């Protein structure tokens, strides 16, 4: 835990991307006002036939899934005792927390009456997967906040509470893994109820397990990606000695997941609908080739896994495939039964993109303020700069 | 089993009196629309030479009620699946899950709720039939105890062979419904869902959800076990380093 540091970025110069961010933020505010004064119909392309759009398919399903790196890595470090991965635990917990915060804010837009979100605490229906989802979001966001809090406590010089949390880390991590297991899988369980609506290429009684295992794969992919992105932004080198072995974990998770998907399609007798040039078949082929077969094939090769560029490419494919899968389950696979084609409105996209941008900005702020990233590579690059 | 409706498509004359009566009874704004909306809870549409009425089927094990996280939708013993707009937070999972695609949303309102037929639950309490059944001039919608309605439907199908398709829609669909329908044109040709499983969809999630308490216990013990083993290994390794040469303590 000592070997972490705050990062200093390249000097801040307002430029093209700052302008984009400001414009996006203004558009985001305008949509927010419209959403809460004119109703969901005024800003979204949602309808009675298609009640869930990208705010569920992307913001909720992907936001939660991509936060899976946090529970995977905390389990690896604190339960499997592979302490050498400890340096990259903090950034993944931060990503996990921001991912869940992103989900909660997105729900504030998507729920018809978000000011009643607390109803899930008061009125219980244990037969509802959505009830389970609601509780998992609440509890796991809390666990992530507590897991991250020592960083903040230490920043303000409050060592006593930080020490208490450090001592409680094992039960905390177990609780986090439990909640994540339930939550990741329950997002798949959400779709168990629609056997007659979801296309057989995606429907399966094993959906909860598909969601769980693919989230582990994509969560690891996210760990690699964010190491790369913050490396670029903050002039750091990739921790290849840590990232190469966890990429192996990604291959295993994605491999198991890919096999399970093929099994499910076989059981649904749906192989025919892959190659009949149907819309669903094409979307499946893109998703499965780019998001499962390619990353598994590439990352199985040690030489490619050890090359930073290929490693980041493989991780990117895994994350992309994951996002495509969630969008296919929630949108592509549901369209035929609904009888309409759903294409998100510009305003829906502005909200989603605006939230992602805000999340990235908060992440950048956090790594500059708190000691989050491992110290080593930073000093290395400083030496390089000084030498040059 | 409670009360229900029998709807006979062969008798319906398409006058739309049921839709208007429904609007009046439930104080729904606007004119009767072509399709079901949050403000039109029942419609009559011409299809294949018949007049096909749509409305909430009031499932015996309602999917909407099972998925609602705040239990805003509930099945009453009298038959109706009722909705509490004060509880609903607007997640719209009921709309996603309903095998008959019945619940509709007030997309145009800043404070929206779900709209769907509630089988005139208030009137039923007073011992009255639903507004639509009361007003139907052609006896196409009949209100009564569900077992009586099933008997009546069977009698009609048997007494005039060939005049009906030998199927009562709603007897088995999605685990059975309080509203049942008979027709002389196959139901799939009328645009109705005929691929619905005979077991209620709610059971599929319950199979998963009911196992969660067991799962939590087992998984927690497993995870702690892993931690215990790895931590112990570390301790043993340390101890061995310390006591090197003094032999195994075991």
Please characterize this protein's 3D structure.
The complex is a heterodimer of chains A (388) and B (250). By secondary structure, chain A is mainly α. Chain A has helices at 16-38, 40-43, 54-66, 68-79, 89-110, 119-122, 129-155, 159-167, 169-189, 207-233, 240-267, 279-299, 302-305, 308-338, 346-369, 376-387; strands at 4-5, 373-374. The longest helix of chain A has 31 residues, at 308-338. The radius of gyration of chain A is 21 Å and the shape is globular. Chain B is an alpha+beta fold. Helices cover 33% and strands 14% of the residues of chain B. Chain B has helices at 17-25, 63-67, 93-97, 121-125, 131-135, 146-159, 202-209, 212-242; strands at 3-8, 43-47, 50-54, 73-75, 81-83, 104-105, 114-115, 141-145, 179-182. A 3-stranded mixed beta sheet of chain B has the order 8-1-9. In chain B, a hairpin with a 2-residue loop joins strand 2 and strand 3. The longest helix of chain B is centred in the last third of the chain and has 31 residues, at 212-242. The chains are: A mainly alpha (388), B alpha+beta (250). The interface between A and B is large, with 57 and 58 residues.
Quick recap of the structure?
Chain A has 388 residues and is mostly helical. Chain A is 73% helix and 1% strand.
The strand order across the widest sheet of chain A is: 1-2
Derived from helix and strand composition plus strand pairing, the structural class of chain B reads alpha+beta
Report the end-to-end length of chain B measured between terminal Cα atoms: 68 Å
Tell me the strand order in the biggest sheet of chain B: 8-1-9
The radius of gyration computed from the alpha-carbon positions of chain A, rounded to a whole number of angstroms, is 21 Å
What is the percentage of strand-forming residues of chain B? Answer: 5-15%
- Written as H for each helix and E for each strand, in order along the chain, the element string of chain B is EHEEHEEHEEHHEHEHH
Biggest sheet details of chain B: 3 strands, mixed
Distance between the amino and carboxyl termini of chain A: 30 Å
């Amino acid at each position: 835990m000592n070997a972490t540091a705050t990062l200093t970025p390249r000097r801040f110069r307002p430029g093209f991307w700052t302008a984009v961010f400001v414009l996006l933020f203004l558009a985001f505010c305008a949509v927010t006002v419209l959403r809460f004064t004119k109703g969901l119909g005024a800003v979204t392309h949602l309808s009675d036939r298609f009640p869930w759009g990208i705010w569920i398919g992307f913001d909720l399903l992907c936001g939660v899934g991509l936060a899976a790196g946090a529970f995977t890595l905390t389990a690896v470090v604190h339960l499997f005792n592979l302490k050498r991965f400890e340096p990259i635990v903090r950034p993944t917990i931060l990503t996990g927390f921001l991912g869940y915060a992103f989900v909660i804010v997105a729900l504030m837009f998507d729920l018809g009456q978000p000011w009643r979100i607390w109803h899930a605490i008061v009125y219980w229906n244990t037969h509802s997967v959505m009830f389970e989802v609601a509780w998992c979001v609440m509890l796991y966001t809390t666990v992530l906040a507590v897991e991250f809090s020592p960083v903040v406590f230490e920043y303000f010089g409050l060592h006593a509470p930080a020490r208490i949390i450090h001592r409680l880390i094992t039960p905390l991590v177990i609780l986090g893994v439990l909640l994540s297991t339930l939550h990741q899988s329950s997002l798949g369980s959400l779709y168990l109820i629609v056997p007659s609506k979801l296309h057989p290429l995606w429907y399966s009684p094993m959906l909860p397990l598909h969601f769980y295992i693919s989230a582990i794969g994509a969560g690891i992919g996210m760990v690699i990606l964010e190491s790369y992105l913050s490396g670029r932004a903050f002039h750091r080198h990739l921790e290849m000695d840590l990232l190469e072995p966890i990429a192996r974990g990604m291959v295993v998770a994605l491999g198991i997941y890919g096999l399970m998907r093929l099994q499910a399609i076989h059981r649904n007798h749906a192989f025919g609908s892959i190659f009949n040039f149907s819309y669903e078949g094409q979307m499946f082929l893109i998703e499965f080739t780019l998001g499962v077969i390619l990353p598994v094939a590439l990352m199985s090769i040690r030489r490619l896994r050890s090359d930073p560029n290929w490693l980041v490419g493989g991780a990117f494919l895994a994350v992309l495939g994951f996002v495509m899968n969630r969008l296919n389950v929630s949108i592509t696979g549901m369209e035929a039964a609904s009888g309409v084609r759903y294409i998100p409105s510009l305003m829906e996209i502005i909200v989603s993109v605006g939230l992602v941008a805000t999340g990235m900005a908060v992440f950048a702020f956090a790594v500059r303020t708190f000691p989050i990233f491992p110290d080593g590579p930073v000093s290395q690059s400083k030496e390089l700069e000084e030498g040059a | 089993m409670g009360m229900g409706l029998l709807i006979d498509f062969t008798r319906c004359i398409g006058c739309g009196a049921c839709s208007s009566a429904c609007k009046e009874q439930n104080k729904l704004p606007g004119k009767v629309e072509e399709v079901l909306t949050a403000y039109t809870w029942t419609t009559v549409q011409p299809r294949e030479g018949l007049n096909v009425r749509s409305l909430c089927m009031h499932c015996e094990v309602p999917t909407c009620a099972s998925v609602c996280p705040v239990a805003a939708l509930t099945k009453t013993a009298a038959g109706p699946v009722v909705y509490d707009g004060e509880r609903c937070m607007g997640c719209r999972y009921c709309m996603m899950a309903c095998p008959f695609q019945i619940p509709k949303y007030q997309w145009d309102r800043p404070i929206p709720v779900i709209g769907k037929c509630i089988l005139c639950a208030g009137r039923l309490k007073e011992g009255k039939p639903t507004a639509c059944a009361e007003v139907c001039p052609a006896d196409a919608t009949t209100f009564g105890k569900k077992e009586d309605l099933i008997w009546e439907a069977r009698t009609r199908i048997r007494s005039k062979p060939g005049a009906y398709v030998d199927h009562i829609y709603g007897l088995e669909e999605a685990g059975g419904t309080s509203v049942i329908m008979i027709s002389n044109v196959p139901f799939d040709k009328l645009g109705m869902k005929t691929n619905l499983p005979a077991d209620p969809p709610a059971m599929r999630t319950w199979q998963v959800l009911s196992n969660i308490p067991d799962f939590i216990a087992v998984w927690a013990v497993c995870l702690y076990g892993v931690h215990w083993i790895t931590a112990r290994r570390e301790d043993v390794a340390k101890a061995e380093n310390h006591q090197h040469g003094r032999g195994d303590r075991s």
